[in-house]
Specification:
The chain has eleven helices and four strands. With 217 residues, it is mainly α. It is globular and about 50 Å long.
Length: 217
Amino acid sequence: AVEALGPERVLGVLMPSPYSSRGSIADSLELAANLGIDTVTLPIAEAMQVMERTLDPVFAGLPTDVTEENIQARIRGNLLMAISNKRGALLLTTGNKSELAVGYCTLYGDMSGGLSVIADVPKTMVYRVSRWLNHSRQGPLIPDAVLTKAPSAELRPNQTDQDSLPPYDVLDAILERHIERHQSADTIVAAGFDRLTVVRVIGLVRGAEFKRKQAAP
């Protein structure tokens, strides 16, 4: 966005929750400074409490689960769309192909937006492009910590993406064979992949179709 439009036309929005690490906030601010863009910080803890109180009569007696995680993503989506409406700005959706393929994203949350810039870029390629970008510049634009720490949605304590998904190198290899080459589960397993992992990934792809139908272009 910065390269296409210039830093003066790009706004970064930080929306920390009680689960956001200091590192993530610091890394985001460092990235914004490197890019030369303005930022605004909108903490969501208070909004989370309001949502919890509002839903308490319906959720009474039910255990905490992914619902509460999705609420955080949807609070953020709501805030971002409000800024988009008020400023007449285009919200860029930041999900990558690996996440969208298996549904590791929240409808009306982090899927909100008008243009999904890297939706056809697998997660492992996002890392490769990021490292190439840093290498091609005088100094790194993307903080090294972003490229070395375990990926996390930070929607619950000590969460990492690998709690819910296979390692991204394995996931991307399976997705590339299944989505790009149209290989069956048996063919992918015959290539040396674990059958349970393959079956699970293909099941996730099929189950996430309703999300992809609604995803930003």
